[in-house]
Amino acid sequence: MASKFDAEKAENLGDIEMQFAVKAVTQAETYWGLLEKIPGSKLKLTKFDDDIFEQLLIDFPEFKDPSNVVEVQEEEMKSKEGKEKWRAFCEKFNEIEDYNFGTLLRTKCTDEYTQHGTIFVVRIQFYAFEIARNRYGLNDWVSKK
């Protein structure tokens, strides 16, 4: 009989972590490449974009103001309260493939991806912020450079 997996006692395997990091960087490079070619306001990231955006505004009404998605407030997002709110939001989209896989999010939509200007989030959080930024036209500057 197989033993139950205990995440608290699991080892961090360097090779696996490296594969996740490579995948996250590849995803960021792909997304940036799209933004360079197509204004964000014309991009559709998933077939669930409308649902994600609508739910974001319900669960986080502060994001109805475009200025509140310009910069990610990492401390708020990763606080105890923030984690609980985001966890509830994320679980509403568990039908989206890889919704909870780690990916990179720019902390400011006014900047490119940089070592100090990105944070690690789950994919549905990336979608939520980037769909909002795109809907508000905040990423359109990238294609105009």
TrEMBL record:
InterPro entries xref list: PBDC1-like_dom_sf (IPR023139), PBDC1_metazoa/fungi (IPR008476), Polysacc_synth_dom (IPR021148)
Compartment annotation: Cytoplasm
Main subcellular location of this protein, as a coarse class: cytoplasm
Gene Ontology CC terms: cytoplasm
Keyword Magnesium tagged: no
A Pfam family hit: PBDC1
Keywords for this protein: Cytoplasm
Domain Polysaccharide biosynthesis: from-to ranges: 16-143
Family: Belongs to the PBDC1 family.
Name of the protein described by the UniProt record: Protein PBDC1 homolog
